[in-house]
TrEMBL record:
UniProt source species: Sphaeramia orbicularis
Entry's Gene Ontology BP terms: regulation of DNA-templated transcription
The keyword Repeat belongs to this UniProt entry's keyword annotation: no
Ribonucleoprotein is among the record's keywords: no
One Gene Ontology molecular-function label: histone H3K4me/H3K4me2/H3K4me3 demethylase activity
ARID domain mapped to chain residues: 60-165
Residue ranges of the region described as Disordered: 1-23
Protein name as annotated: ARID domain-containing protein
Keyword annotations from UniProtKB, A to Z: Chromatin regulator
Cellular component, GO annotation: chromatin; nucleus
PANTHER family: LYSINE-SPECIFIC DEMETHYLASE, LYSINE-SPECIFIC DEMETHYLASE 5B
SUPFAM superfamilies: ARID-like
SMART domains, A to Z: ARID (SM01014), BRIGHT (SM00501), JmjN (SM00545)
C-alpha cells in the first residue's frame, strides 16, 4: 500500500521548477571614511576581474539590424511655444499647434520658403499657385490641399511675415479684406 500522506509531504518539500528561489545574501562592504573619499578606488579594490579578462561584445553584429528613422526638425514636437516675435503679434502665452495636412505634419519652413520663392502670399493668391505649391511639397494632385495650405499660411505665417517686414498689421489686414 502507498502512504499518501508521506508522498504528499515529500512532494511539497521539494521546490517546483517554476518556484522562486531567493538568491544567497551578497556581502556588505563598509568602507572607512578614507576609502569612502574615493568610491571608485574602493570598488576597484573589491571587484577585480581575472587577469587578461576581456568582456564579450554585447551585440551580435551579424544579427543586429535596425532601420534608422529620419526625423525632421519640425516633427520633434507637435507644438512649440511662440517666440518673442510672435508675442508682439498678440499671441503671448499661446502655444502654436503645428497643423497636419493629409495626415502629415505640415512643414511650415518649407511652405514659407516656397511661397516666398513664388513671390509672396499676395502673388500666390492672385495667380492661384497654391496647387503648384502643394505639388512641390509632395502632396498628391487632385485634392484640395492647396486651399488648406493657403488657410494655414494665412493664419500662421502671413502675420509673422508681415511683422518681420515691419508692415502695420491692422492696415495690411484691412487692405487684404477690401
Amino acid at each position: 500500500t502507498v502512504n499518501h500522506r508521506r508522498v504528499r509531504s515529500e512532494t511539497m518539500s521539494q521546490p517546483r521548477p517554476d518556484e522562486f528561489k531567493p538568491p544567497r545574501e551578497c556581502p556588505v562592504f563598509e568602507p572607512s571614511w578614507e576609502e569612502f573619499g574615493d568610491p571608485f578606488a574602493f570598488i576597484n579594490k573589491i571587484l577585480r576581474p581575472p587577469p587578461g579578462w576581456q568582456p564579450p561584445f554585447a551585440c551580435d553584429v551579424d544579427k543586429l539590424h535596425f532601420v534608422p528613422r529620419i526625423q525632421r526638425l519640425n516633427e520633434l514636437e507637435s507644438s512649440s511655444t511662440l517666440g518673442p516675435d510672435c508675442q508682439i503679434l498678440g499671441f503671448a502665452g499661446c502655444s502654436l499647434k503645428i497643423p497636419h495636412v493629409e495626415r502629415k505634419i505640415l512643414d511650415l519652413y518649407k511652405l514659407n520658403k516656397l511661397v516666398a520663392d513664388e513671390g509672396g502670399f499676395d502673388i500666390v493668391c492672385q495667380d492661384r499657385r497654391w496647387t503648384k505649391i502643394a505639388l512641390q511639397m509632395g502632396f498628391a494632385p487632385g485634392k484640395a490641399v492647396g486651399s488648406h495650405l493657403r488657410a494655414h499660411y494665412e493664419k500662421i505665417l502671413y502675420p509673422y511675415n508681415l511683422f518681420q517686414s515691419g508692415a502695420n498689421l491692422l492696415v495690411s489686414w484691412m487692405h487684404a479684406s477690401i
